[in-house]
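Changelog excerpt

This revision adds worked examples to the README so contributors can see how folded entries look when concatenated. The first example is reproduced verbatim below.
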Amino acid sequence: MASVFLWAVAGTQFIFWMTALGAALVFFFAGEAELRFQRLLLGFAGGVMTAASVWSLLLPAIAQTALESALPAWLPAASGLLLGAGFLAAADALQRGAVGKERMLFTAITIHNIPEGMAVGLAFALAADGESLAAAMALAFGIGVQNFPEGAAVSLPLRQLGAGRGRAFLWGAASGAVEPVFGLLAFCAAAQLHPLMPWLLGFSAGAMLYVTVRELAPEAGPTVGVFGYMGGFALMMILDVALG
């Protein structure tokens, strides 16, 4: 049990540092990007968040409910989706102003990262009960690789929205800080939290989709933003399917 706990610590730390590494991409862009590049980045962020909502959150929520619950498979995912969107709508109303988009992007990715961290913690908890440790390690690796573009999806658009590089990086890296915390909490309370995962996954998806439609899509603009969106969606889809 103690050795598996150490693996859980390492796995949840890995997914955080991959988020921070993705956020660090903001330091490789000199000066202010042109409008077309700004739209490309905002569209990319929206594509990443949409694909992550589907493959990382909603589909796993539906699959878990179908296997483990007497509820309709769609109910927790759909209910959580609406609750997550409602939560972000309320947050949007409370934080209008110059930093509203910064907080909105940060909040959406952070909420999305909570169940990801919990999923890793639960996987290592299952390994402690006799399931495959290799499967838990593979899940941590897959989520970590997925977190790289998610960190960039926070820091790069924030840079284009006027934040300094250091500030944009800190927002992006901090969005992943919840993963080790909730991952280890989930490891220690696996039996109690596991039934709630479909609701939490749906909630996260609703938060991310709200931000994509409300903030990112209008800013992404015409054709170049659309191609950025498609590229971000395709990249996140490939990572989720290949490594999920």
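The second example, added in the same revision:
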Amino acid sequence: MKKITKSLFIVVFGLSTITLLAQTYGENILIIHDAVGKPDSTVVIYAEIINDEEFACYMFDLPIPEGFTYVTGSAANNPGRNTIGMIYPSILDGTNTLRIIGFHLVNGPWPGNDGVVCTFELNTPDQTGIYQLVPDSAFILSSSNLNDNIVSGIFDGIVYITPEGSVSGDANCDGVVNVVDVIKTIQYIMGIIEKPFCFANADLNSDILVNIEDVVGTINIILDLNSGFLK
């Protein structure tokens, strides 16, 4: 009973606080999610599209920060979607800019609120620090008119390189897991993206979805259920 009561308290507290923290960012947007990694390692970057119009393909150019390199062959469509598509990553000639183009192939166009569309990996530098991922162009092409770029906003990502690396449940990328991470995860589920948000940390079961299972998992981490703290 103690476990259930405390878990429900945290969820209710989180829901009641969302209205104080939330910001909405518009429609048909591309988000490069924040991430945390270790020096001299690799980090997975998640790109997400939140849309209210069906689209057929997307593209974005992402200058890779100094010290990082693209892990060749690492770009992938989100396997959590029940769709089939093609993805074409490339480094533009004479630059360190990653271009990713994604196409949908079957079952009609991508529907609204598509979620994570792709992931890719970067080799990390040997120094800790905070590095920005700033797309310099993006296209989300309407399924009804391939000449119509419907993107209305592009949101940068941040990569935090720390000695500890990523922490499961740490949705706000600050290195600890607490009620703020529960709030952040609930916000995300409700369609509210408030930066910073580390998708990989919030996605506890690594299914490339953030949902109520991840909220419960984060609460369990906070309450230290695995160690028997609340027996």
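Reviewer comment on example two: The first strand starts at residue 29 and ends at 32. The domain at 26-176+193-205 is CATH 2.60.40.680 (Immunoglobulin-like).
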